[in-house]
Amino acid sequence: MPTVVVSDVHLGCAYCRCDPFLRFLRSLPAGVDLVLNGDTANTYDSTHYPPKHQEALEAIRAESLRRRVVWIRGNHDERYAMADPGRIEFVPSHHIGQTVFLAHGHDFDNLIPRNRTVVLIFRTIHRLRASMGAESVHMAHYAKRFPLLYRILLRHVAMNAVEHAKENGYLAVACGHTHYAEDRMHEGIRYLNTGSWTEGDACYLAIEDGTIELRQVPGP
């Protein structure tokens, strides 16, 4: 069955590009499975989400009534519960045969949990800058302004994901979490990341008959 994978939509977040996501959802052809690879919702409580974001959540539920929808839990939405989930499958990870293992990626990230004080300081500086009139951007977008540190995180998550794929016999592993789209080989394992919907151009995976392609979401 053809499958489309996206991650890090962050519905409920001020930086979520909700309109393009809704257009993308409504453009999916019949007969395609949809996998939401973590952090689809920004927090577990969606009661105060903007109306357009509530509409997107309802659209996801509606899609589950006409196609398979798998919602992989990420670090932001691991406690999220939908009042009426339709037929959405909420899971910690997913796989398509032995072709590709899908996980949000936070379980492969040991750096942020081990450096919570540094992260807290970073968040405080980020908020202070915004309060003083600096450009308001998602924290992951701001972190990309420190490329050396950011590359350490990217490599750390990728290497742990690849190691998991090797140990379990998968040909590829796909994550989100880092908000950085990439497609590369390491030790014979293909590592892919679908980036995010909070800054720049969103991407998705198209998987069919053992073929995996990282594609950019077309504009309106």
Percent of residues in helices comes to 25-40%
DSSP strand (E) fraction? 15-25%
Global morphology: globular
Q: Which whole number gives the mean pLDDT? A: 91
Radius of gyration: 17 Å
- Number of DSSP-assigned strands: 11
General description of the model:
The chain has six helices and eleven strands. It is 32% helix and 23% strand. The chain is an alpha/beta fold and 220 residues long. The longest helix is centred in the C-terminal third of the chain and has 22 residues, at 147-168. Strand 10 and strand 11 form a beta hairpin. It has helices at residues 18-27, 51-63, 111-114, 116-131, 139-143, 147-168; strands at residues 3-6, 33-37, 69-72, 89-91, 94-96, 100-102, 172-175, 181-186, 189-194, 203-208, 211-216. The strands form two sheets. It has a six-stranded mixed beta sheet, covered by helices on one side. Helix 1 packs parallel to helix 2.
